[in-house]
Write a structure and sequence with these properties.
Number of helices: 3
Membrane topology: Single-pass type I membrane protein
Oligomer: single chain
Subcellular location: Basolateral cell membrane; Endoplasmic reticulum membrane
CATH architecture of one domain: Sandwich
GO molecular function: cell-cell adhesion mediator activity; D-mannose binding
Largest sheet: 5 strands, mixed
CATH superfamily of one domain: Immunoglobulins
InterPro entries: Ig-like_dom, Ig-like_dom_sf, Ig-like_fold, Ig_sub
Strand order of the largest sheet: 9-16-15-11-12
Keywords: Cell membrane, Disulfide bond, Endoplasmic reticulum, Glycoprotein, Immunoglobulin domain, Lectin, Mannose-binding, Membrane, Receptor, Signal, Transmembrane, Transmembrane helix
Shape: elongated
Low-confidence stretches: 1-21
Radius of gyration: 42 Å
Helix content: 25-40%
Structural class: alpha+beta
Length: 267
């Protein structure tokens, strides 16, 4: 058992050294050029052939090419540049992080949220800024001023990490809970915020579409019933009128018989 632990620890240390060595083989730099920020990575390692480059921000792929250069660059708008980027030399020769410092760029996952009273609503904000957010604050905009929300607030609690924050509102009240909520994030470079509008609908509101469909079906069935009833009444009247009318063929037969009698008497 002890031997196995030594082997596992040895492999872990070897992997850590390999990773740090691969990252140390890449030189990075950041250049601010007016409205653009240029990120540069230079591979300074072995003579292994490079088959391409890849740039990422978090889990998002930003750029990929098949160039064989030992230098790769990526440009981003300065106003949106804050965050941690990664340059990768393919095929997996090494990667390095490039952190661009700046105040948080806070984004609401959904700018407008709809929920039903008595249920639960979750408002979420995100930030990919660098350095990461160290303090999140939620508050509600009211006529009396900004109302700060904490885990001690009635029917509300906050769950936060470096990159996201969530405001959970339980047992929603139709009168008290609708409105505008603000998530505010702060790091060492500054602060940023986003606004989310919460709309709470009545419990019966979800039934209105169904009730509307039922009403339309009832109206349609009523119209069909009235139409069928009137059509049957008209058919009965037509049958009665036809039965009271004299038979034309009988009249012609009588007249023909009378003519024959008169002709016989004349003879």
């Amino acid at each position: 058992m002890a031997t196995m632990l030594v082997v596992v620890l040895g492999l872990a240390l070897l992997g850590a050294k390999s990773g740090s060595r691969a990252e140390s083989q890449i030189l990075t730099s950041i250049d601010f050029d007016g409205s653009k920020t240029r990120l540069t990575c230079i591979f300074n390692g072995s003579d292994t052939e490079i088959l391409g480059h890849r740039w990422m921000k978090g889990d998002v792929l930003l750029k990929e090419d098949e160039l064989r250069s030992r230098t790769t660059q990526y440009e981003v708008d300065t106003d949106e540049s804050s965050g941690q980027y990664f340059c990768i030399f393919l095929p997996d020769l090494g990667r390095s992080s490039v952190g661009v410092k700046g105040p948080p760029k806070i984004k609401a996952r959904k700018k407008s949220e709809h929920a039903t009273e008595k249920e639960v609503a979750v408002l979420t904000c995100e930030s990919e800024s660098f350095p990461p957010v160290t303090k999140w604050v939620w508050y509600k905009i009211t006529e009396a001023g900004d109302q700060v929300l904490t885990n001690n607030s009635q029917n509300k609690f906050v769950v936060s990490s470096d990159t996201t924050t969530e405001l959970h509102l339980q047992n929603l009240d139709l009168e008290a809970d609708p409105g505008q909520y603000v998530c505010n994030g702060t790091n060492t470079e500054g602060t940023g915020q986003a606004i989310i509008t919460l709309r709470v609908r009545n419990q019966l509101a979800a039934l209105w579409p169904f009730l509307g469909i039922v009403a339309e079906v009832l109206v349609l069935v009523t119209i069909i019933f009235i139409y069928e009833k009137r059509r049957k009444s008209d058919d009965i009247l037509d049958d009665e009128d036809t039965g009271s009318a004299p038979l034309k063929s009988s009249g012609h037969h009588v007249n023909d018989k009378g003519k024959k009698v008169r002709q016989r008497n004349a003879n």
